[in-house]
Every structure is written in structure tokens, then in C-alpha cells.
Amino acid sequence: MNATPQRRFAIAGAGLLGRLTAWHLLRDGYAVSLYDAGDLDTPPAAAWTAAGMVAPLAETVVSERSVYEMGQMALDRWPGWLAELQASELWHQHGSLVVAHPQDGNELIQFRRDLADTLGEGALYQELDGSGIHHLEPDLTRFRHGLFLADEAHLDNRELLTRLLGAIRELGGECHAHTPVEVHPGEVTTPTGTHHFDLVIDCRGHGAKTNHPTLRGVRGETLHVTTNEITLTRPVRLMHPRYQLYVVPKPNGRFVIGATSIESEDRSPISLQSSLELSSALYTLSPAFAEARILEQGVNLRPAFRNNLPQVTLSDGLISANGLFRHGYLLAPAVVEHLLSEIRGHGDNPFADLLDGSAPRRPCRESE
Ligand SMILES: Cc1cc2nc3c(=O)[nH]c(=O)nc-3n(C[C@H](O)[C@H](O)[C@H](O)COP(=O)(O)OP(=O)(O)OC[C@H]3O[C@@H](n4cnc5c(N)ncnc54)[C@H](O)[C@@H]3O)c2cc1C
């Protein structure tokens, strides 16, 4: 009989990293208490606001090669994790499409150049003409040139977060909603007192700013619309000199629209200008969106360090994982596997040096 007492972990933050880590640790047989400052069903997490694209190529245009490499791990890991969660239907790997109106054709050329700068010539995309675009997305009839990034994927991120919470509860995880915490090695402080654990894992995203002075929030805005007038099978990015619109299809005729990446920690509602830009860009993608109903506007802060790359910091009794920036779903598998291998004391993660900051870093491009 194994007489080793069960190790007790606290996880601060029930967003993307917190839920994934809790789920894995519970399956390993550890005791887990999960704390979030907000509601657990509709969390204030960036992960809830996110569009759920897993887009290593498209994101490489605004970041460095390691993001692409970690993204390849995501394409490999997500299908298996979702199968284990019995949620394979949330994963859609049909590629993504990048298009531009004829007057903005230079944006497509620049996109290709940026890809080649980071990944070399022969990057993994296919050039499309109007009929190629129409073949993939019959409802997009206005475009004559585009790029097809065949490996990319998207997932139903809100349903994923809901399923993860269900699995955590089923596995006996203790979940504390509306409980903001402060973290210290081996303890968390809640409004009602201090609680001791073998290990505290800080996954509070932008909420961990007091522990990470160089962490910043990068504002992102989204609109959720619904219409039955148009069907898209994959995320579509519309290149434009001032913004890059993305439209991600969700179940039941719902679409998430986003574009903005604003260097501001303001969480106030979407501005009229952003809302107009998003709506008019959406309309130029296809006039079939004209009668779409706006269901929701979303604003949240992407947690980012100065180099826009994630970081895992380890000390006795406290591990912190943060800085996933605009690549949460893309980088979470690499980050979570690194966290788990540190906790389990075994397992190799090819990105360990990068994530714990010991690898030399290449400068990264400014994001849009
Ligand atoms: C508009 C937008 C679109 C995006 N689209 C994509 C996309 O398509 N693909 C992609 O890969 N990434 C995308 N992202 C990025 C992604 O959402 C983030 O990188 C990811 O959510 C970060 O995960 P996290 O777990 O570190 O933080 P979060 O998901 O933000 O979770 C942090 C959690 O910690 C909780 N918390 C904070 N402070 C405390 C406290 N003191 N005590 C307890 N709990 C606390 C918060 O309530 C929250 O639930 C997008 C982000 C935004 C804003």
C-alpha cells in the first residue's frame, strides 16, 4: 500500500491555464483546490473572451519562431486532450483562410513576406484564386486572392472551459468562485483567511500583475454576432492596412469577430469606433452579415511580458505560469506540459529552457 500522503495543490485563477492544470493534476491523483476571483460558469478570464483559434502560422507573422514551434505541439496535443475529455467535437482542424480586397493586395504580399522572414521560404500555405476561395468557403464571393493555411485549427473555447470545469468537479476538485486570492509560497490568502498547501500554482493571468511588475495587459475587443445567412467552416482573416479582422465560426450560426490589439489596460466596454470598424469590415467580408444580430461585445486583457512570450517561474512552494498574450490556446499545451513535468519531476519538454527563461531569446516583431 502506498503510504505517501496525497500532495495538496492550490491553483489561483480558473482561466485557461488554471483549468487545464487542475484537470491534469487531478487525473494524476493529487488534491486540487481551484480559486477564481470571478464566476466559474461565465468567467472574467481572457480565455472566455478569446476566439479560440489555434493558428501557428498566422500568429508567427506577429511573433517569433518559437511561437510557431510551440503551436505545432498544440496541434498535436489538443485532439488527444479533447478525446480524453470526451469533447472531440469541440476541435475543428479545417485550416484558416487569409484574404484581402483587391485594393489591399499588398497586405497579403506583406503577410507572405513576414511568414518567410520567420519560417523561411516554402512556408506551409497555399495560394488561392477566387475559385479556390469559393471552393473552400462558398459564401465568400468577393475575393480574388487569398492564402490557405491548411494545418490551422479552432476550438469551441467556451464549451471547452465548461467541460473542463465539469471534469474537475467530477474528479473531486474543490472549486471556489468569487474568491480573489493572494499567493505566497505554500499558501493562498482569501478574504476569509490563509490556507496552506504543498504547492501553489499561480495562473491568474493579468490578475497576477502585483507579483510580476513587468506583466502588462493588452486590450482586445470582440463582437459576437449570429446569422443563418452565411456559413463559414474555418476562421477567416481579412487583411487591411489599419487592422486585421478575424471571424471565427462557432456553433449555431454564431461568429466571434475581433481585430484590435490595443496597448491599454482599460477594461471598459468597446468603443464606438472599434465597434464601427469591426462591423463595417465584417460587412465588407460578406454583405450577408448585414442582418446579423449582435449578441455580445467583449473586452479583456491579454497577459503579456515585455517579449510577448510565456514564462514559467519556479520557487519552493510556488510556481507561476503567465504571459500567454494573444496565443493562449496555441501555447497552453507547451506551458502546461512544462508545469506538469516540473511537478511530476519527470518528462522532457522541448521548450523548458525557453519557458523558464534560460534560453537566449530572439527579438520579436511588434504586434499589430
Ligand atoms: C479578445 C481576445 C481574443 C483572443 N483570441 C485568442 C485566440 O483566438 N487564440 C489564442 O490562442 N488565444 C487568444 N487569446 C489569448 C488568450 O485568451 C489568453 O492568452 C489566455 O486566456 C491566457 O490564459 P490564462 O489562463 O493565463 O489567463 P486567463 O484566461 O485570463 O485566466 C486568468 C483567471 O485568473 C482569475 N484571477 C485573476 N486575478 C485573480 C485573483 N486575485 N484571485 C483569483 N483568481 C484571479 C481571472 O478571473 C481569470 O479567470 C485572446 C485574448 C483576447 C482578450
Automatic annotation (TrEMBL):
EC number(s) on file: 1.4.3.3
Keywords carried by this UniProt record: FAD, Flavoprotein, Oxidoreductase, Thiamine biosynthesis
Residue intervals of the FAD dependent oxidoreductase domain: 9-335
Organism superkingdom: Bacteria
A GO MF term: D-amino-acid oxidase activity
Necessary cofactors: FAD
Enzyme class: oxidoreductase
GO terms under biological process: D-amino acid metabolic process; thiamine biosynthetic process; thiamine diphosphate biosynthetic process
Pfam families: DAO
Keyword Phosphoprotein on entry: no
Keyword Protein biosynthesis: no
Catalytic activity: a D-alpha-amino acid + O2 + H2O = a 2-oxocarboxylate + H2O2 + NH4(+)
InterPro entries in the record: DAO, FAD-dep_OxRdtase, FAD/NAD-bd_sf, Gly_oxidase_ThiO
Pathways per UniProt: Cofactor biosynthesis; thiamine diphosphate biosynthesis
Family statement drawn from the similarity comment of this UniProt entry: Belongs to the DAMOX/DASOX family.
NCBIfam families attached to this UniProt entry: thiamin_ThiO (TIGR02352)
Protein's recorded name: D-amino-acid oxidase
This protein's encoding gene: thiO
